[in-house]
Fold this protein.
Amino acid sequence: MSPSPEREPAVRAEPARPALPRLDLPLGRRRRLLPEYDPDAFGRMSERIARFLGTGRFLVWMTVTIIIWVVWNVWAPRELRFDPYPFIFLTLVLSLQASYAAPLILLAQNRQDDRDRVNLEQDRKQNERSIADTEYLSREVAALRIGLGEVATRDWIRSELEDLLRVLDERRPPLPIEPSARSSVERSAERSAEPPGSDTEDH
């Protein structure tokens, strides 16, 4: 019998694993059922609308529109009136305008409050830095004053030198008078003692 060839072990096919998201790549955008919008852009638009609602121009235009609406639905031919008295459609339009204006105004106020809060926080930090700088400068000025108090000024040095010279003059012994100088001193003393006119009598 010929030896049977060795059978190779059967390789089992492993099920394919789902590909895991890579950590070095950003995730893709997920689909959402609700529409997406930019909150900042919507907030800016709401601020513009709220700013316009708070102007006199809006009040004038709204007043003119209501007057034209009422006059048309009262004096126009009956077949052309689209909102006869008691003006139910006008009431509905004004209610709808008010229901949208209130949230827009509140949204604009919230954004303004957020900006004010950020500005106040920045002002507070700036004030703290200014106070710290002022305290540092005050300490430096005080240190300079203390240092200047210990520095010898020109007047102080001059007064000290004058005192030292005065002390030296007091301690210095009198100088001896030489004979020639003594005779001249005595002669001058004698001359001062003679009565006036004696020199003329000798001649």
Notes: The mean pLDDT is 77. The two ends are 187 Å apart (CA to CA). The longest helix spans residues 88-149.
